[in-house]
Design brief:
single chain, mainly beta, Beta-galactosidase, Chain A, domain 5, nine-stranded antiparallel sheet, 30 strands, globular
């Protein structure tokens, strides 16, 4: 195992450090302490060719200017909160409205735009980078001082484990995730429309016109949302289902997982031979197929465009504070939040 650190750039909040975890098989995971962004994941294809399978940039300036949350940790609350307001114990909180009058992904300067403290650890079997941040009471409108730690751990089994731990000194909301855009073709050679996805999920959340859950839980049966057997992403892009059309011809939906820690999410690309298996303790995964990626910038010399990557965001349900029948995203004072998601890279 090996760890490589270097200066990635600098912004007004300080120097940005890049950390690359390298295992004994040559797999690499690179991240920076700006937003805990994963910039590269290098894994082999069926011919042994090592290539990057996530969308990202080589400069901090591009992340500040162009990034639609590429590879970042999202918080305090992933997804949208309707109207940018919520109540806890009778107190009303007004959040930053950064998406059509709603709060999205933690606000104007969520966890994805913060500079985090960085530490590293390594032994013979795994290496890790640990990011820490203190989110102050009132930040983006949320109550409580929240101490949060995010750990990226790479093993010799070609597994990346993302662990989250947080505690608040006031009752607050917390729903964190990683927003990596995957493309298993390698170095963005193709889009993700022919990627095949399998998800152990019997139901998904209906969205309104602002892409916020209505509260209705819909069955996946006999729809383009049925990933219980593997199907290609193209099916949803071509679908006439009103929810696919609403999302911009594709997916931007939370799926309720029927199992945890049992190969519940599997993404594959037949041409490269790569396969990604995701296991989590979270109740849901948000599938976003890059339906709204802009084409006015480049990603490492490749023109950005729709469907160039897809996100599999393991998390709690968005806007759960307004839907009491959803699993709660409330974090009590002094309660320790813990969550873990494992990304296993292999070959078909």
């Amino acid at each position: 195992m090996k760890i490589i650190q270097r200066e990635f750039g600098s912004i007004h909040d300080g120097v940005i450090t890049s950390t690359t975890l390298v295992n004994d098989h040559g797999m690499e995971v690179t991240s920076i302490n700006y937003g805990c962004i994963i910039t590269n994941i290098m894994v082999p294809d069926q011919n042994g060719q090592m290539e990057n399978v996530v969308l990202g940039f080589d400069t901090i300036e591009n992340y500040e200017k162009h990034s639609p949350y590429f590879g970042a940790v999202i918080g305090r609350v992933a997804g949208r909160i309707k109207g940018g307001t919520f109540e806890l114990d009778g107190a009303k909180y007004q959040l930053e409205k950064n998406n059509m009058g709603n709060a999205l992904h933690g606000g104007n300067k969520g966890y994805d735009k913060k500079v985090w403290h960085v530490d590293v650890n390594s032994d013979d079997e795994e290496s890790s980078v640990v990011y820490k941040y203190i989110s102050l009471d009132g930040e983006e409108g949320y109550p409580g001082n929240v101490e949060i730690k995010v750990t990226y751990c790479l093993s010799n089994a070609n597994e990346l484990t993302i662990s989250y731990e947080a505690v608040s000194d006031k009752k607050t909301l917390l729903n964190v995730t990683n927003h990596s855009y995957f493309n298993l073709s390698g170095d963005l050679k193709r889009d993700i429309l022919n990627h095949a996805l399998k998800v152990k999920s019997d139901s998904f959340l209906e969205l309104d016109d602002e892409l916020i859950p209505t509260g209705e839980v819909l069955s996946v049966a006999n729809t383009s949302f049925d990933f219980r057997e593997s199907r290609v992403i193209q099916d949803g892009v071509n679908s006439s289902h009103d929810q696919n059309i609403l999302a911009g011809n594709g997916y931007d939906h939370p799926f309720l997982l029927s199992e945890n820690h049992n190969q519940e999410i599997v993404l594959s690309d037949e041409e490269s031979g790569r396969i990604l298996t995701i296991e989590t303790d979270q109740p849901a995964v948000v599938l976003y197929t890059g339906n709204k990626l802009n084409n006015d910038f480049e990603i490492r010399s490749v023109q950005s465009r729709k469907y160039l990557g897809l996100c599999l965001e393991t998390q709690g349900l968005p806007d759960s504070i307004h839907h009491p029948h959803f699993p709660s995203n409330i974090l009590e004072k002094g309660e320790v939040f813990r969550s873990q998601t494992i990304y296993k890279f292999g070959l078909l």
